[in-house]
Sequence to fold (975 residues):
Amino acid sequence: MEFQAVLMAAGGGSRMTDLTYNTPKAMLPVGNKPLMWYPLNLLERVGFEEVIVITTKEVQKMMSADPKIKQDVKMKLEVVCIQEDGDMGTADALRHIQPKIKTDILVVSCDLITDAALHEVVDLFRAHNATLAMLMSKAHEFTETVPGQKGKKKTAEQRDFVGVDESGKRLLFMANEADLEEGLSIRKSILRKHPRVHIKTGLVDAHLYCLKKSVVDFLTDNKSISSIRGELVPYLVRKQFSKTINGQKTKDDVEDQNQKKSDKLHISSRDEPLLQLAQERSCWNDHRGDMSEAYHGGKLRCYVHIMDQGLCYRVNTLAAYIEANRLAPKLFEEPVVHPSAVTSERCQIGSDSIIGASCQVAEKTSIKRSTIGNSTTVKEKVKVTNSIIMHGVTIEEGCNIQGSVICSNAIIGRGADLKYCLVGNGQRIEPEGEAHNIIGNDA
Amino acid sequence: MLADGPEKTGDIERIKNEGKELTKEEKQRLRKEKKQQKKNKEKKDEKAPLESEKEKKPASSSPASQATAQPPTQKASSGVPAPAPVPVAASEAPSPVDKPAKSKAELKAERRARQEAERASKQSKKGEVGQQAAPSKAKAPPSELQPVVKRLPEHIQVDNPEVLKKLAKKLERQQIPLRSDYGYKVSLFSHLHQYSRKAPLTQQLSIPSSVIHPAIVQLGLQYSQGIVAGSNARSVALLHAFKQIIRDYTTPPNEELSRDLVNKLKPYISFLNQCRPLSASMGNAIKYIKKEISNIPSQCKEEEAKSKLQDCIDCYINEKIILAAKAIAKYAIEKISDGDVILVYGCSSLVNHILCEAFEKNRKFRVIVVDSRPRLEGREALRRLVQRGISCTYVLISAVSYILPEVSKVFLGAHALLANGYVMSRVGTSQIALVAKAFNVPVLVCCETYKFCERVQTDSFVSNELDDPDDLIVTRKGKTHLEHWQDVSSLGLLNLVYDVTPPDFVDLVITDLGMIPCTSVPVVLRVKNVDQ
Fold:
């Protein structure tokens, strides 16, 4: 077997607590499908037959109850439950399942919605015998107004600085603005080997990683690394240009301990001399202009595939959630109105809307650019525009909902007027209530 | 035809009786007719198996006949006998049926066709006697020799839709995706595959590849992207992948390792062929492995058999590649004297090894590295030589005739050595050999014996490799002129990989068996076959 897929679905959604305080992030409905269905579908399309899902007990329960996951996903899902307290980082989770890992792994995060051609990432991993290959995408501006946001001012998100070489494939440098105190410093060893570095900031990390098995073994020794994205990836990227790996072995006993630890990272296969011979005899070099051999003799290599076209969203903020709801249905061609929904003749349902299963939409309603969840009741003379209505919601007559997110089981009273609001789970909006740009939660 | 015969002879009899001398033509015609009658009797027996082969022939014969730019090569070319049997077969079919209904014009046409067949078969007979060791390509004309039906390899019949259909079926059976051709092909090479590097075969594979062993997928990717390039490197990488396959292999119940493992290897080899056509050295390595696997005794335990095979592979690499390189270097160093100016072309791992060894042995020489687009492999050779401390000059192939007066020897590497003494190597090698010959500079080809191939080729058209045409597109000063070459209907980009150098241009071949002339290659092949 070449790869084992690991789906990280235990995340708490710390950046959109308004949505996730009741529903775990992995099961948030996007286009009337649970969020984790999208990466599972991606893996299934590509040809995986088994996935290891790391998640919490709550999500596991919801998964077994959800019809979409039970019926549509034909792969074998091996669910590993971890504690819900949130102390376990993604790397800790990998360490937890290390006994199950027998080959190289493909780690996917549950909040990834993309139509990327995965073979591009995996081909980099295979062809260059890389230790890490990841996927990134050019970030798109979010055009929708987000409830709760005062004006168009965006919070200063911490930028990621990603440095790639001339070909745009080799990952040379990765740092987050938060970790850089004074400025961006690049080591001379990197510049000596790769004189032209392209530093990009507007990239979204898709959290899709191909990792060699030796990395998982390395993690078991180094218990200090707890997050893949935050610590492991920058560590590996830095280690590419570390002196100890590139052949210079010290005879110090003190250094030996560290040496052993880092040697685990590139456990040489039994036929290393043959591979060396093939590389020596091959007339290929990944760079030109200096006197060093292919890959500068480095054994640890990190690659990135940056996609400039196509969809790639990480649903970890409210804005991303709204954007994803708008665009995710376009990935799959599904009927606008679910066959089991009941809609009367005189309602206007725009073609970019989705009506979920078992819905009831009364007459004289207008639904434009919105997503209506399963088992929702929409009474007469309701106008829903640019909104996301989750499951089990009741909207009484004469309501006007614009640019809002209504969570599950909420009840919107008669004649309410909501603009750019977020209504929490199970909330009640009084009849004739007016709300503008408010996030309402359980008290 | 039989009706014709007596007519003609009647004519001639008449002339004879009239006392005139038979003209040369008429005598020839007589002789030919008699021979043709004999042949037809034999042909009718073999019509069935040959009819299907003849349908394939027109496809391959057209490029071969187009290649008749060089008349001396045409005689031995396998294309010539091909067109002849076709009209003969065509004429054969109606003749027994429509005998009475033929017109004089038809008879004349048949006669002409018969004459062509005779002429062609005579020539091919001459050629065949000299090319016994040959070829999957030269067809045995239906004559006194045993009618051995040799099939043309499919990779040079890409413009024949039937062959393509057969290939598609075979790949479907083996569950390997079919790689589609890309771009407009120059008509002279339309019988070869042309793939694009941007459409790798892995697009159509599932990601955790279950049908094909991951080591083979990795290898195929590395071949198609050019990461593993060069005859020796490709063979070593292939054998390394085979070692991994053997290690991960388990014999299914009720199967024998010797037979099942060989069957397992077949789809992998098809896959690699789709990624990049196999080289001659790879072909020989595969033959060796298959032979070793089939020779495993059935009572041998699986673990033992597997370790034995791994040892065989290690042994093969050690003998044929590593030690051979050492032996060749030893012989070659004798030929390098102090003060020499050596010209090398492209990046041959063997030639680089020789030069580095010679430098270690303190020979004083300098090197001129000749390079060519689009691969620009000479840069890599230049780097390796300069790293050792050898003083080098770098020129492009367009300057070769300007720099040759300085050169004392030319060392060339080979991709394969063909059975008729031709050297198959990177495109441009024959140019260099030609110009060197014109300047009377000795040309030495270095080649290990495992690259010797039983194929015969006299031109670079019949069997070659077409690389991605987009490699020829280059951006200079911000302008990419060929960017939309596909929109221009009369423009074709051709990126050839190999060419063949005739033995007259090669003075010496240095192999691990010694220094031999080019024409001794079939002897080496014969000896090798006897050994095995």
